[in-house]
């Protein structure tokens, strides 16, 4: 199994897809901040790929059924959500760094998000909501799968700090109708599971206060992502149930930036995730060829 990881890793690295390559001709600033590199995208001119998005509500019943079937496993560290648990430190590093800078908070403080209202859209069992609450944010976690919300509530209640999280079984669209707004709207690994990404992004935007932040992570529609997240993770290593991901639902960084731009969100920074098979740990990289995360600001 380890040899498979090395073969795939070698192939993935040998066909590296870094930010300057994709955004050639666009002003990109690379710089080191805290423990990793960010890419700042300035004056973005997207390479347009055509993709048909359904225009109805973002709910995709097939995807929802998949997550309902796995709901009991959210806090099983060796279960299907093991990769999300393993990625959490790297995703939180990016979130802490970008949001502290944006909101003028001290990234070295124990509770840097004190006083800020966050919504974790597609929160699942609360893997991300809980650490965000421990970092001081007032967190609302929403998910369309009722069982996910039940599991998230039960688990959060084990910790007095996390028990402050408000969990609700609802969609971003429904929350928009309630006219609730948040300082930061976070949707990690969700957009590739919705049926109308453009509509979904508009809802995320409508939930964000003016000059508030949006953070989205997803999977790039690249051959390397197909090899690593579907062939390797689902079929060879069997980290995830077969069929968890649909390659055609993956979104390229260019498409995400354009879609967010149309929803009045300007993407300011992006970073990729890199897996080290020796340590089993994920880290932040400037290679956004496979899994990546984007931070944007709601205009106006
Ligand atoms: C891959 S999981 C990600 C969970 C969590 N965001 C994380 O990264 O730890 C995707 C989650 O999105 C939820 N989901 C799918 N479609 C959704 C929608 N339209 N609105 C809200 N949640 C949705 C699923 O039920 C599932 O819990």
TrEMBL record:
It is an enzyme of class 2 (transferase). CDD domains: AdoMet_MTases. Its EC number is 2.1.1.64, 2.1.1.-, 2.1.1.114. Keywords: Magnesium, Membrane, Metal-binding, Methyltransferase, Mitochondrion, Mitochondrion inner membrane, S-adenosyl-L-methionine, Signal, Transferase, Ubiquinone, Ubiquinone biosynthesis. GO terms for molecular function: 3-demethylubiquinol 3-O-methyltransferase activity; 3-demethylubiquinone 3-O-methyltransferase activity; metal ion binding; polyprenyldihydroxybenzoate methyltransferase activity. It catalyses: a 3-demethylubiquinone + S-adenosyl-L-methionine = a ubiquinone + S-adenosyl-L-homocysteine; a 3-demethylubiquinol + S-adenosyl-L-methionine = a ubiquinol + S-adenosyl-L-homocysteine + H(+); a 3,4-dihydroxy-5-(all-trans-polyprenyl)benzoate + S-adenosyl-L-methionine = a 4-hydroxy-3-methoxy-5-(all-trans-polyprenyl)benzoate + S-adenosyl-L-homocysteine + H(+). Pfam families: Methyltransf_23 (PF13489). This is Ubiquinone biosynthesis O-methyltransferase, mitochondrial. It comes from Helianthus annuus (Common sunflower). The lineage of its organism: Eukaryota, Viridiplantae, Streptophyta, Embryophyta, Tracheophyta. The gene is UBIG.
